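Schema walk-through. Below, the input block comes first and the output block second. Nothing else is stored per chain. Lengths vary across the set, and this one has 644 residues.
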Amino acid sequence: MEFFPKGGKLNNYRIKRTFKESIEPEEILLDAKKSDRLEGSKLELPINPGVFRIFVVLSMLLIIVLVGRSFYLQVIKEGQYAKLSDQNKTRVYPIFSQRGIIYDQFSTQLVYNVPSFDLEVIFNDLPKKEEERQLVIEKISSIIGLAPQEIEDEIYQYLKKNQAGFVLSDNLSQENVLRLEAEAADIPGFVIVKNIVRQYVDGFYFSHLLGYLGRLNSQDLQNNPDYFLTEKIGKQGLELFYEEELRGQPGKKEIEIDALGSEKKETISQQPAAGHGLILTVDKNLQIKLFDELSQRLAAVKAKRAAAVALNPQNGAVLAMVSLPSFDNNLFAKGISPEDFNNLSDNPYHPLLNHAIAGEYSPGSTIKPMIGAAALEEGIILPQTKISDFAGELIVVNQYDPSIIYRFGDWKAHGVVDIYSAIAESCDVYFYTIGGGYGNIKGLGIDGIKKYLDFFNFGKILGIDLPGEKKGLIPDAVWKEQYKKEVWYTGDTYHLSIGQGDLLATPLQLATAISAIANGGKLYAPYLVDKIVDSDKNIIKQTQSLVLKENFISSKNLEVIRKAMRQTITAGSAVALNDLNVAVAGKTGTAQVAGQKNSNALFVSFAPYENPQIALVILVEDAGEGSQVAAPVAKEVLDWYFNK
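--- output ---
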C-alpha cells in the first residue's frame, strides 16, 4: 500500500472550507470588512508533509506496542499471573519442625525449643483504601505497642523489597496473643503464626559457642530461597555453622481463601521433619568453672577482656572455650531490642566477638617452646648448649658504625642457661640468640622461624567448626616490605623469637600448638561437635579426629621441650602450681602491646605431664605478668578438674 503519491507532490491534496460557492447579488453591498473576510474564507489550506509523516509513524508505533503488550500478557506472563491467582486463592503456612537440641559431652541439654507466636503481615490482604488500612494499623498498634508510624514504615520498607510479607512482631506475649485473637481475629492483612524460640541454658557461659538465631534478612532469603519468611536462622556460633543439620525440614499447611478473604479449607501438604541434634565435646561444668575463674581474675586486676581454651591434646576436642566480656544469647532468641543491641555492638571491648578464635595477640614468651623445638630440630643447639646472660641484655654493635649500639633487653640477668632453664625461667637472651643468631651461634633466622611456626599452623586457619576464626600473622621480610615499606632487620628476628613484634596468634592456635608438644608431635584440628544425632540420640555422624601435621619435630626433641615446660612448674616462673596433686607442664608469657598501660598476661599448660588429658591456655588483656595473673587461673581450674 502507498501512503503518498509518486513524485512526492502534495499540492493537489487540499482541504476546502465547507460554505456556499455561489454569491447572491445583495451580498455585493456588504461592507469592506465583511468582503475581506469573505475573500479570506475562500482560501484553501495545504497539509504540511512532515505532520502527515509523523502521524503515520506514531500510528504504526501504537499498533506495535498494543500488539506486543497483548502478546506479553497473554503468552509470556500467563504462568506468572496464573500463579498469582492461585496464591490469592490458597495460602501456604509453615509448620515449623523441632530444631535439633545441643548437648554437652555428658548429654546435658544446653538449649530448649519453646513454643512462640509471631505476627505476620500479608501485603495482598491489607485494605487497599488508605482510610481502612489506617484503621487496621491503629488497631494492631494498640495491641502490640508499636506506634502506627513504625508499623507503616516497616510495611513500606518491606514493600520496597518486593516480598509477599514479613514478621512485624515475634515472640508475642501470651497477653498479646489472646488480645489479637479476641479483638483482631478478622482484621485483614495480619496473621498469627506459630513458631519456636530457643531458650539457652546458662546463656552467658555458652553464648560464644552456641550462638543464636535471628530473623531472616534479605541476604538470608537470597541464599535460602526455600525458607519461610517467619523462620529463624542461625546467626552466630554452632547455630550458624550447623544450620543445615539443626534446622530440619518445616512442613506446609495450605489454606484456601474465598473472595472475601475468609479461610475455607485447610490441608497439610507436607509433614515437618525434626532437625538433628549435636553432642559436643564440651564439658559443661568445666566451661562454667573456667568462665567463673576467669571472670573473678578479670575483676580482681580490673581488666576488661580475656580468653581461654581447653583442649583434649590427644584428639583436638574442645573441652571448654571462654571469651570475656560475654553476653546473654537469650536476648537475641527473644528478639533483641535496639537499645540492647546498640549496647552490645558499641561496647569497646566487643562482647559479641569470640576472642578465643578471633582475637589475634602477640603470644609473648608462650612461643618459646616452639622456637626451642625448631632450634633443636635444625641443630642450632643441643640440649646441653649453654648461653651466657650475665648482663640481662643482648648488646649488638652496628657493623658499619661501632658507635651505634643496639640493646635487646631481658627481664633479668639469668647467668648461664641451657634450653631447660631458658624455658623454665623465660630467658629472652637465650631465645634472641637461637632465633636471630649471635656470636658463634647461627640462629634460625626469619626463614627458619617461619618454617617451624608454619608447621605448628600459626598464620593459618585451623578449621574449627565455628564461624569467624582468624589466622593470625607470621611476619617476614616480604610482609614488612609490602605493608610497612621497610626492610627486615635482625632486630625484627630477635623480637619475633620471643613472641613480640608483629607476630600474632589466637588463643586457639596456642592451645593447638601446645597440644602437639604434649601428645608427642601430632597437630590435631580442633573441633566442638563430637556426634550428630537424631531426636532419639541415634548417631547419624561421628566426628573423626583430624591430624593436620605430624613428625615435623622428632620425639627426642619434643621430650626435651616437655621436660623444660615441666621445669617451669617445679623450679621456674610458674612454681606456684607445683603444689597441685597433678603434675603440670607449662609456660608463662607477658606480651607488651603498644597503646596499653599493662602487658597481656598469658599462661599455657598441659596435665598430667606423663599422660596429658587437658591443654589449657589463659590470656588476660592489659593485666600484667603472666605468672601473676594468668597462671593462678590455670591453677584453680586444673585443681578443680582433677579433683572434681
